[in-house]
Amino acid sequence: MVAPIIPILKEIVGEENVVTGEEALEPYSHDETFGLKFFANVVVKPLNASQVSEILKLANHQKIPVTPRGAGTGVSGGALPCQGGIVLSLERMNKIKEIDLENLMVITEPGVITGELGKEVEKQGLFYPPDPASLDSCSIGGNIAECAGGPRAFKYGVTKNYVCGLEVVFPTGEISHLGGKIVKNVTGYDLISLIIGSEGTLGVVTEATLRLLPLPRCKIDLLVPFNSLTEMTKAVVKIIHQCIIPATMEFMEKKAVLACENFLQKKLPASEAEAQLFIELDGETKEELQTQYERLGEIALQFGAMDILVAEERPSQERLWEARRMLTEAITAKSPIREREDVVVPRREISDLMSELKKLEEKYGLEIISFGHLGDGNVHVNILKGEVAQEEWQERLPCLIRDLFQKVIDLGGVISGEHGIGLSKKSYLSLGLDLTQIELMKRIKQAFDPNNILNPGKIFDLSRTP
Q1: What is the mean pLDDT of residues 95-99?
Q2: Tell me: the pLDDT tens digits for 252-297?
Q3: d(CA 76, CA 54)
Q4: Residues near 297 by Cβ (< 8 Å), separated by ≥ 6?
Q5: Which residues contact 286 (CB under 8 A, 6 or more apart)?
Q6: Of 72, 135, 218, 259, which residue is the least packed, with the fewest Cβ within 10 Å?
Q7: What residue ranges in 336-424 does DSSP mark as E strands?
Q8: Of the candidates 299, 329, 129, which has an alpha carbon nearest to the alpha carbon of residue 222?
Q9: Residue 300 and residue 292: Cα distance in Å, rounded?
Q10: How far apart are CA 219 and CA 311, in angstroms?
């Protein structure tokens, strides 16, 4: 199906931007999801929306699957060509087109690395808040496809809160411009919100207009250890009720801290605590932040905090956050094979969720290490294979995940807060959504993509027209 159109693809994007052959295709066969690997027939690297449009028109006419791909940092298999065909890599579309100081907007192509965009706008005294863990390697287009969040989501929100305009190429090849440099828009259905988080199944984003904020002038970080996650959660609720809204409120359970100690080969502050709360305050003046952290510290101590460690200068802030920054590497070193889930519950339910995780750990004999964003209830659950035999791992893991998701739903939560459904979670979608919702989503997909060529096999299954 694909071989006859390869000469046409070369005409569209140039011969050097069409990739074939197993060795050259291998980097595009996987993302950061463990155990998933699929080869495309060809990788195509367009430079602009017009080229994307020509590729999609061709693929739609020939009914060839197309998988959009950003930087390949996803952890749900969303950018993997599970049905072969074409991988549409947006890596060449990597320009920041405009930083608009007066309107507090930036116009960017989808291949721009999120961390690089943040640095560029900061040079102008501006601030782009979304900060996913893969900040230095993920792309803006992928962030939009997954509605990425990060530690600052509690105060500042997630990607969808900053997208004001999109240029989108739809599966049938039409190019459409949605929104613009505007912060209010109720002109018809909110198609921008429909595209955000759709995991590349409804359209290909070729340009984004993103809202910016003035860059906060000051920042103070705190590390607050507790011997009870329940009391930590109560303290956080009280802090928020006192109108103190930190930029970040991250937590690590004791096992996570000890994994970092082992990885870094050094003693970390308060590693004997059952849980650690990492807080970042930002604002206009240090005096304002000092008032906040003094009040915050009083509340934390009322709920049994063991100590309040304060870092006001960059070197001490780097040391305070060292364990949290190195956590993913530390867990990977402990168990290279692991499953990562990103469930969300109401923040008052986090301590109940952690109790349930201990029960699941005992039931299935698989170690679980958790950390996450306490402010918004997003818990990253790492299930470690460790020394468990492969056959037992494959048998126990799906049952554990299903039990985990059911517990999350029973607590009023959802099965994914940041990573998306993609391939890895689609068999569990019916746990989180009722049949009416799923059928409505399928009808939306069919309206946008009648031949089901764009990222087929993700989120749910639909048959492609032969």
Answers
A1: 98
A2: 999 999 999 999 999 999 999 999 999 999 999 999 999 999 999 9
A3: 28
A4: 222, 224, 305, 308
A5: 218, 220, 312
A6: 218
A7: 338-344, 367-373, 378-384
A8: 299
A9: 12
A10: 9
Overall pTM > 0.90: yes
pLDDT attached to residue 170: 98
In the structure encoding, which two tokens stand for residue 341, read together? 């889930």
Query: For the CA atoms of the chain, what is the radius of gyration?
Result: 23
Question: How far is the C-alpha of 251 from the C-alpha of 279, rounded, in Å?
Answer: 9
Percent of the chain residues topping a pLDDT of 90: 93
Distance from the Cα of residue 78 to its chain's centroid: 11
Q: How far apart are CA 59 and CA 63, in angstroms?
A: 6
**What 8-state DSSP symbol labels residue 94?**
-
Structure tokens at 358: 């201990």
72: left (phi > 0), else alpha (psi -120 to 50), else beta? left
- Angstrom CA distances, 121 to 90, 126, 451, stand at 22, 5, 40
| Count of positions (residues) in the chain | 466
Evaluate whether 371 touches 327 at the Cβ level (below 8 Å). yes
Q: What angle separates helix 229-241 from helix 350-364, to the nearest 10 degrees?
A: 160
Q: What tokens appear for 362 in the block?
A: 């005992």
Residue 431 has phi, psi (to 5 degrees) of: -70, -35
- DSSP class of residue 18 equals E
CA 20 from centre of chain: 29
Strand partners, 44: 18, 88
pLDDT in tens, 73-85: 999 999 999 999 9
Cite the DSSP H helix spans in 42-139. 49-62, 114-122
